[in-house]
Design a protein that fits this description.
The chain is an alpha+beta fold. The protein has two domains: 109 residues, 3-Layer(aba) Sandwich (Aminopeptidase), CATH 3.40.630; 157 residues, Aminopeptidase, CATH 3.40.630.30. Helix content is 30%, strand content 31%.
Length: 309
């Protein structure tokens, strides 16, 4: 049976369903929905030259790839490709063809260094290494049984700080953009970013279909946001932390714990039962925060890199 690799068709419901199904089978730690897949297609910055590819056998989607350039990095020529194949269809060439198509696309748009997240399992790592990729940093997926967790008691904010939600900034989210740009630039990463395009941020992040404004907790001091814990919610009681960050001048005051605890308590009260998040393995402070809540590592992945030319 022949494997065909092509672009995902936004108007084809079977393509969207197939993409989501494969991602959930191959990477169950990250929540995707038809709405989020479509959002990713429509909100990507033109300079990212983003594509979503599918590998198809007899009309069935068996593999997926997300491909893009790091358009917001000060260092040009950095590309990303993340490839996942239905575990029932591995060994049939779908992954190889998806990688080849992704690499050709990125190289054609000037990429000289390619990054890929790979599950920290022998078969996945061997696949990447056979194709010239070398291992770098690692990251963890973490999970918390929110229905049963003994969450820390809610605490009053320190003097001069008040708790709000992202819904309070619905009319003007620009202050949250400023905080996200500052906190995000300090996250451990292979690719430095400079988030400066407010409209692009609104399209990609603020309008994300999983973003829950009411459960996103924000600490405010002197009239501006200084810490936040971003909540994404989905079906079947799923609650994900998209980002927890604190402004540099306010770190070391326990604000990350404050906002995340507030969000977790309200998520549980709203009926969410499973909490998920992810951390770079080198982000000791945030890993410690998540251990404090009772999160446990459920899987890990490794960032592989290949230089072209």
């Amino acid at each position: 049976m022949t494997v065909i690799v092509r672009d995902l068709r936004p108007g084809a419901a079977a393509d969207i369903r197939g993409f989501v199904r494969v991602r959930h089978l191959a990477l169950p730690y990250v929540y995707f929905s038809p709405a989020s897949v479509l959002h990713g297609l429509t909100s990507a910055h033109p300079a990212a030259h983003a594509r979503k590819l599918v590998a198809v056998i007899d009309g069935e989607v068996v593999g997926t790839a997300q491909v893009s350039l790091a358009h917001d990095s000060p260092e040009p020529g950095q590309g990303a490709l993340n490839v996942y194949v239905d575990p029932a269809h591995t060994g049939r060439g779908a992954g190889t063809l998806l990688v080849r198509a992704a690499e050709e696309h990125l190289a054609a748009h000037g990429a000289t260094k390619l990054f890929a997240w790979v599950l920290d399992e022998p078969g996945h790592r061997a696949f990447a290494e056979r194709r010239g990729y070398r291992a770098g940093r690692s990251a963890h997926f973490l999970r918390l049984d929110l229905a049963k967790a003994a969450l820390p008691p809610l605490q009053d904010p320190p003097p001069g700080v008040e708790l709000r939600t992202a819904a309070d900034f619905a009319d003007d989210p620009r202050p949250l953009f400023a905080l996200d740009a500052e906190a995000g630039s300090d996250e451990p990463s292979d690719v430095a970013t400079e988030m400066s395009d407010y409209e692009a941020w609104v399209d990609e992040y603020w309008r994300h279909p999983h973003l829950n404004l009411d459960l996103t907790s924000v600490a405010v001091a002197d009239g501006r946001p200084v810490a936040f814990s971003v909540a994404h919610t989905g079906d079947a009681g799923r609650y994900d932390t998209g980002m927890t960050g604190t402004a540099r001048a306010h770190r070391g005051r326990g604000l990350a714990k404050l906002v995340k605890n507030d969000s977790l308590h309200r998520a549980r009260a709203a009926g969410y039962t499973q909490a998920h998040t992810g951390n770079d393995a080198g982000n000791g402070p945030m890993l410690a925060v998540n251990r404090w809540f009772g999160y446990e590592i459920c899987a890990s992945e490794v960032r592989y890199v290949r230089e072209l030319g």
